[in-house]
Structures are given as C-alpha cells and as structure tokens.
Amino acid sequence: MRKILIVTLSILLSASASFSKSVADYVDLFICTAGDNGQLDPAACVPFGMVKLGPDTNPQNHSGYDFNAKEITGFSHNRIGGVGCNGAGGNLRFLPGIGNMNIQGTPLKKETEKASPCYYSVEFSNNIIAELTATNQTGIHKYTYPETDEAFVIVDIGSSFAELVSSSYEPISAQEFNVTVSAKNVCNRGQYTVHYHVWSNKKLNLAKQEGNKLYFEFETKPKKETLFYVTTSTISTGHAKAEWENVTKNTTFEQARQSGYNQWEDLLSRIIVEGKEEYKTLFYTHLYHIFLNPVKTENYLKEFKATDGKVYKSDHYDHYDSWSMWDNFRNKFSLYSLIIPDISSDVAYSLIDLYKYGKYPWSGNNEPVPTVRTEHTIITLLDLYQRGIDFKVDNQTYRKMAEEIETIQSHSPDQKLEQSYDFWALAKFADLTGRADDSRRYMQKSQEYKKIWKEKFLPITEKSDIMHGDGLYEGTLWQYRWHVQFDVDGIIEMIGSKEKYTEQLEFFLDNHLYNHGNQPDIHVPFMFNFGTKPWLTQKWTNKILTKSMIQYYGTHDKWPEPYRGRIYKAEPAGYFPEMDDDEGTMSGWYVLASMGFYPVLVGEPVFQLSTPIFEKITIRLPHNKKFTIEVKGLSDQNFYINTVELNGQPFSKSNISHKDIIDGGTLTFNVSDTPNKKFGR
Predict the structure, then answer these.
(1) CA neighbor of 83 nearest in space, from 583, 576, 473
(2) Which of 31, 154, 368, 518 is disulfide-compatible with 305, CB 3.0–4.6 A?
(3) 134-149 b/e with 16+ CB inside 10 Å = b?
C-alpha cells in the first residue's frame, strides 16, 4: 500500500542546503484563522488526515476557531476549513477543567498558544496545559494539570458546527467509551456519521450527564500527563476500537507528533523555493493548506464506507473522501499530478467510487465524513487522465458520467456555462477512449453556451456589474463571462477580435471588476496569454501576489467602500474579508501563481506561464528527476519577462506542457522592469 513516506536523511540534507530551517517550519498555522479572512484553523493533523484535532472558540468561526477569540470551548476532532456557511464537523468536543464544572469555555493565555504541522498547544487561565497531535484516524490529547484534587473533563458528544442529527454514548470500562455522531454537512446539505472509540490513561468517573454533555472526574498529579486517545471510523465503533488496538495503541504522543511532522516535511519539501522569507512563509503555509483535503478514510484493513452506506474494500488504491470539487477542480489537482502522482491515482479511483456507489451534486445522507460538493468531477478526472495519472474509467463509470451530465441544472446563465464545460470534458473523454460518435455529440452540446453568452455576457451594460444578477450563483455577469476556458477562441470570435478581447480584459481588471475573493474568475489574470498582451498576465499576477489591490466584492454583495491592501498576507487575517480558502483552492492559486504557472484550462495538460516571485524553485519529481525554475534579475519592480530558455534553448511560448515539466530540466526566466511585448505572442 502506497503511503506518504517518512522523511529521509537525504531529503533533510537537500532541504538544509537552501534553508536554515526545515520547510515545515515555515508553515504558519494561524494564517487565515482570524475573523472571516480565510476560515481556517490550527488543528493538528497529518497530510490528508481524517482526524483534524483542534480548538473551538467563543465566538467560533466557520471551522470552529477564531484567532481573535479569548475563550476556548474545547477541542473537537473533525472539521472542514474555509468552505462558508457554518462549516462541518466540530464533533466530540473535550474541555479540561478544574473545580467548577458549570463552564461553557475557559480563557486562554494567548501568548502561550503554539501550532506547527501535526501539533497544537495552549495554556489556559487555570494553568492547565493542553497539547494535541494526531495520526490519520486518531487524535491524541495530552493535558497537564496543576496541583488539584478537582480535575475533570467535559466531553460534549453533541457538539457540531452544522445541525446535529443524533449522538449516542456507550461506556465500556472505567477507561474506555464509544460515541457515534450524525450531523448535517456544510450548509446543512445531507449528513455524515462518524464513530469514535475513546481511551484514557486515567480511570474516569462519570460525575454527571446533562443532555449531550458528559462530566468525567479523575485523579491527577502535578506535571503528570493525562492522555485521551480518540480513534475514529467511518464504519462502526467496533472498527474504531480495532483501529486503536491494532494501529495506535502503542504510539506515544511524541511518536505521533514526530511522525506527523516528518510526513509534512517530506510532502512540503517536494518543492524547494528560494527568495524572500515572507514569501516562503506564505508559500509553504498555502502548500500545506492544499493537502488538508480530501481525507483518507479507509481503515488498516483497507475497508471503507461508501456513499451508499455500505462497506467495501479498496484493493489497489487508498480510498479518499471529503470533496469540495466546485472549488478544487480549478487548480490544486493539476499540481497534485506533478508532485504526488501516486496519491493523484488514489484520488481518481476515489472519485470513480462516487459514480459507483452514489454521487450527489452536494452531499448525500450516508456520507462517511464531512464533505461539501462534487460538481465538475468529470473535468478533474479528465485533467488527471491527460496528465498521465494511472487509473481507468470503465464502461459503467463512463455511463454514469454521461447520465450525470444530462441532469446538471442549467437554468441560470452561469449554470449553462458550467454545464458546457462538463460537456466539453466528457467529449474529450469520449474521444480519448474511442467513442467518436459520443465525442462529436458532446462537443456539439458544449457549444450550446454561445446562445446564452451572446444574450447575457456579450453586451456590456449597467446590469453586468450586479451580484447575483440574472440568478447567478456567486458573482456578476462580468465575472462569469470569462468562465469559458474550454473555448477561449469561441468568446474571442463573439467579441470580435483578439484586440477587443484584450481590451475588455484590461477594462475588467483596471476598473476593479475582478473578484479574487471567489472562484468563478480567478483564472482571468492568466487569460491575457490568449490575447495580444501576454505581459499583462505578468503584471496582474505579480500585483495579486505581492502588492496592494482594490477589491469591491464579497461573496454575495458589492461593498459601498472597497478593500484596499494585500490579498495574501502572512498574518491571521491572511485574506481580505469574506475570501474563504475553499479547501485549498485559494491556496492553490497562490502556490501555482507564485511558481509562475497556472492551469487555466483544466482538462488539458498545459500550464499558462507568468513570472515567479522566487529566484529559484526546485520541484522534486518521480524517478529522481527534478524541474528547476530560475529567475534572473528579479526584484519588486523587475517582474516582466524578457526572454525564457528551456534547457538552454530559447522558449517563446506563454505556456508550458505538463510533459515538459515532468521530463525534468531547467526553465530560466530573464526579467526586467520593462515588458518584452513580443514574448508569448
């Protein structure tokens, strides 16, 4: 079974050649955790970990935690970050205490709060020190109490960010109990059920139970650790206990913490960047964010619960769940294909499992873990396939994809554009798998967007800048009109010429109609590469990455006064207001754009080029290959491309193929403060 490998000495030595500290030490888990500026959290977890054990605060945020809060209500075991509504998860919340049990939360000593990959710690005002770490399926709590005869812990089996459906408690012994929780998913769409087995190194006395809250007393000594191992399963509490007994039981807190850190170090060090310290912090923090989801849900026997509520076995792949595809399809899986092709194959087979066992546009009622949405899975599978990821789409899956696409809603203009993109992807799949008639039919259907585009998007009127105008989901006609990546030539033809297309892109960005706070138009800065002024892609991507911007739009409204400032900041308010991370989508934009390439047309194995913000980037590839990007002459003002060489040979295109990267080699940018207006034309 393929797993993320523990970091080796050679990797550490390679990283230390360019770093005074490990790459994982650049991850700042508090970035994007304050207010509505990212909606993330500092939970302890391993890459793709099913358990995300972290603090919940009062007031809480979408992921349960707000950096600005002064009180912690406890530590819960699962969450989805940066997805809007109330998030999902926050189940089985533990709150340690002393003396008075009638508390809802405890003030924290903010200066003691620390977090790093796979670790979180804080000291409370009552001098209890809490430390958290995790494996894939077990959260480990370590509480150190001061001298007291009144130690207790409150276990809330009914805690949940979205609506609670049901919860149950089953005592096993003085040191063990089981819990099962069912709750609604993000925006209260569908529901999931999780099972927990809890073991403590202390004998627990159930002092009282009030509703869903259990109050356990126990004896403790000063500076002696109180441990809770909380193992989760998608199948049953029996499976959760078996997971603890066979996988986690003999793992110490420090072993779990070090193993998790090593896994993060290995994964993050697959890309080494050299440049400004602030940019490295932002880069590795956002690279970390893109590996939080999906989550690996199979147990040690390779069993998993599917979306039909039944249990299956994954033989040749690791099974993943927890999807936010409407957001994620836009960028991060294209990067997965480069640096973790083995996990990309697992992701592909796990997405195919949705077609086998039950795929819903949002969430079904038998989800194994918190999840969000599954639209545009076809596009993602096509992109992975085109980038050489190893998986097969059988006839049954293909038929299910074809059935799904016919049922996609296309009532509003934006839905029609999105459905057409899916038709395009299925047409490409049909072509690649020898279904010529299907390919022609679906490609023809993908062109049906032109009728609504000519009617709603081609004319520029005062209605073009109205949020939710014409029933749009999240955005304006201006922002959605560019969501035709699969047929840029088609919209250029409808606009009239490449020159007019470029002029309208310029107007869109110059007049602050662009919204980086939501997904529909985040590829637009790279679309100048398809027009007559590719250097404007270099200008605008650099500005979004490093300089002050004006933004007028939240998720649902246009603000009377704009936000002015950096979009990506190395601070708790890491994004501008209402810009949520959407499970690594906005982080994925930063990571890819900062390296100088981006997959505008997801579904084709090509990246559009811009200027990196690092002097040197080394991408570790499979089979001991590497791809190096060098930027000569880079500064705050020097970001325009003059010339490019690939492996020492002149390179004049404004895009690069996936194959050129995975073959290994060196891409060299020569930059200055003046654009070369011939490059990329």
Answers:
(1) 583
(2) 368
(3) bbbbbbbbbbbbeebe
DSSP letter at 661 equals H
Predicted local confidence at residue 8, as pLDDT: 36
What are the pLDDT digits (tens) for 169-206? Answer: 999 999 999 999 999 999 999 999 999 999 999 999 99
- C-alpha 268: how far from its chain's center? 14
Residue 19: pLDDT band with limits 50, 70, 90: very low
Q: Kindly tell me if the per-residue pLDDT of 565 is higher than 90.
A: yes
Q: In the beta sheet, which residues pair with residue 55?
A: 75
Q: Which residues contact 453 (CB under 8 A, 6 or more apart)?
A: 417, 481, 484, 491, 494
What is the Cα–Cα distance from 324 to 368, expressed in whole angstroms? 15
Tokens at 81, concatenated: 């970050």
Helices (H) and strands (E) in the chain, counts: 18, 30
Token pair for 584:
């690594």
Indicate the pTM of the whole model: 0.96
The whole-number pLDDT of residue 17 equals 38
Sign of CA dihedral 664, 665, 670, 675: negative
- Give the helix ranges, DSSP H, for 387-497: 395-407, 413-432, 436-446, 449-452, 477-480, 488-495
Q: Is the dihedral of CA 611, 614, 616, 620 positive or negative?
A: negative
| Tens-digit pLDDT profile for residues 299-330 | 999 999 999 999 999 999 999 999 999 999 99
Q: What is the DSSP string of 25-78?
A: GG--TTTT-STTSS-----B--TT-S--BEEEEES--TTS--TT-SEEEEEES-
Tell me the average pLDDT of the chain.
Answer: 95
CA distance 456 to 196: 51
The larger pLDDT score, comparing residue 556 to residue 374, is at 374
Number of Cβ within 10 Å of residue 221's Cβ equals 11
Alpha-carbon span 382 to 378, nearest angstrom:
6
> Do the beta carbons of residue 145 and residue 240 sit within 8 Å?
no
Token pair for 524: 């637009």
Amino acid sitting at position 542: N
How many alpha carbons lie under 13 Å from residue 2 in its C-beta half-sphere?
14
| Residue 130 parent element (H or E) | strand 129-134
Instruction: Collapse the DSSP code of 116 into the 3-class scheme (helix H, G, I; strand E, B; otherwise coil) and give the result.
Output: strand
462 has which bridge partners? none
Which two tokens mark 314?
């994954």
How high is the pLDDT of residue 9? Answer: 35
| C-beta atoms surrounding 427 within 10 Å | 23
Alpha-carbon 336 to chain mean position: 12
Average pLDDT of 513-522?
96
